[in-house]
Amino acid sequence: MLIVQALYCFNLHANLKKGQFGNVHCANYKNDGITALVAVKKTNFEEDSQDLKQKFIEEAQIMCHFNHKHIVQLIGVCTKGWPILIVMEYCALGCIRDYLIQNADALDIHHLLEYIYQLSSALKYLEEQNFVHRDIAARNLMLTNEHTVKLGDFGPGLKI
Ligand SMILES: Nc1ncnc2c1ncn2[C@@H]1O[C@H](COP(=O)(O)OP(=O)(O)O)[C@@H](O)[C@H]1O
Ligand SMILES: [Mg+2]
C-alpha cells in the first residue's frame, strides 16, 4: 500500500458525498511528476475521538488486502496530521443507487445482469479471502463507467 505522507499533494474538489464518519471528495493528486484523479475519504469528526479514528484507519487496513477488478482499489492512506485521508480509485459515475434512479429508463436487463455478475464475482473473491462485507447495498456500489461496478465501503467489514 502506498503511504501517502503529504496532505498538500491533494487538491480536494467539491464533496461527492457526506458520510457518517467521512466525507468523500474527488481530488487531484500531484507529486513527484505523478498526477492522478482519485477519490479521497476524509475524517469529519474531532481528532480526539480515538475509537472513531481507529475504525477509520481499519477500513484502509481491510481494503489494502484486496485486489479485484470489481472492488474499489485502495491507493493509500495519509495518517500524518489531521484529517486522516483514505485514498482510493475514483469511480466517475458515483454510487449505483443514484445512477439507477437517474437512468431507470435507459437501463435494460443486460446492464442489470452485468452488474449482478460483477458483484457476485467480487463476493466470491471476498469469500475466498474469508471476509464478510456486512453492508452490501446499492449506496456502497460504485460505477467507474456504465458497464463496470465496484464494491466499496469496507468500514463495517470483518475477517472471519
Ligand atoms: N471511490 C469512489 N469514487 C466515487 N465516489 C465514491 C467513492 N467512494 C465513495 N463514493 C461516494 O461516497 C458515498 C459514501 O461512500 P462510502 O464509502 O459508502 O462512505 P460511508 O462510510 O460514509 O457510507 C458513496 O455512496 C458514493 O456516492
Ligand atoms: Mg456507505
TrEMBL record:
User: What organism is listed for this UniProt entry?
Assistant: Oikopleura dioica (Tunicate)
Source superkingdom: Eukaryota
Q: Which Gene3D superfamilies match?
A: Phosphorylase Kinase, domain 1, Transferase(Phosphotransferase) domain 1
Q: Note the InterPro entries from the entry.
A: Kinase-like_dom_sf, Prot_kinase_dom, RTK, Ser-Thr/Tyr_kinase_cat_dom, Tyr_kinase_AS, Tyr_kinase_cat_dom
Q: Does Nucleotide-binding show up as a keyword for this record?
A: yes
Indicate what this protein is called per its UniProt record.
Oidioi.mRNA.OKI2018_I69.XSR.g16133.t2.cds
What are the Protein kinase domain coordinates in residue numbering?
A: 10-160
Q: What is the lineage of its organism?
A: Eukaryota, Metazoa, Chordata, Tunicata, Appendicularia
Q: Name one Pfam family in it.
A: PK_Tyr_Ser-Thr
Q: Which SUPFAM superfamilies match?
A: Protein kinase-like (PK-like)
